[in-house]
Design brief:
With about 170 residues, the protein is mainly beta. The protein contains one helix and 16 strands. The strands form five sheets. A five-stranded parallel sheet has the order 3-5-7-9-10. A hairpin with a 2-residue loop joins strand 11 and strand 12. The longest helix has 6 residues. The chain starts with 7 loop residues before the first strand and ends with a strand. The N terminus is likely disordered.
């Protein structure tokens, strides 16, 4: 989509644009002139945003960028987008985004916790690993037993820096 056309799906204007994690690059003028877009979620693996990619997206009122390394962006990538809108980025990369070309034009860069992985670890228990290395086990009851098997978060164990077990967990 480019050249000033709004995005439509089943005759409805698209207001929330969520770009999948398989996308690593947004090309020049990809969403140029899409005035209906109110929010954009950019994926964790995005590495670049092209020239005027979001040019004239004047309804844009929030950006969520899940990438910990700010995607390389032309200074005109968000031309005519209000630079005071909230830009949500992983907590660990707020300062990097504030310093990066193009991103440093936004005045309201805020940190959010990004979920790296999650799953079930008991009949009524779940686990969530956040980008800062925090693993939270929550719910009610006992955790599954993993005597000769790997825990469900084992492939992320080197990322874990803190473990929080909530009050209603009865056994680990």
């Amino acid at each position: 989509v480019n050249g000033g056309a709004d995005l439509y799906l089943n005759d409805e204007l698209v207001t929330d644009l969520i770009i999948p994690n398989s996308v690593t690059s947004i090309k020049d003028e990809a969403f140029s002139g899409c005035k209906s877009i109110a929010s954009v979620t950019l994926p964790e693996c995005l590495t670049s945003i092209g020239w005027c990619a979001f040019y004239g997206c004047t309804s844009l009122n929030a950006i969520t960028c899940k990438a910990t390394t700010p995607p390389a962006s032309d200074s005109n990538a968000f031309l005519y987008v209000d630079k005071s809108i909230p830009v949500y980025v992983p907590i660990s990369s707020v300062e990097a985004h504030k310093k990066a070309s193009c991103w440093n034009e936004f005045t309201n860069i805020l940190g959010i916790r990004v979920i790296l992985d999650s799953g079930v670890c008991g009949d009524n228990l779940t686990w969530t690993l956040f980008d800062g290395g925090e693993l939270i086990i929550e719910g009610t009851g006992a955790m599954n037993n993993y005597p000769n098997a790997l825990s469900p978060w084992d492939n992320r164990r080197t990322s874990i820096t803190k473990v929080i077990v909530q009050n209603n967990v009865t056994s680990i």
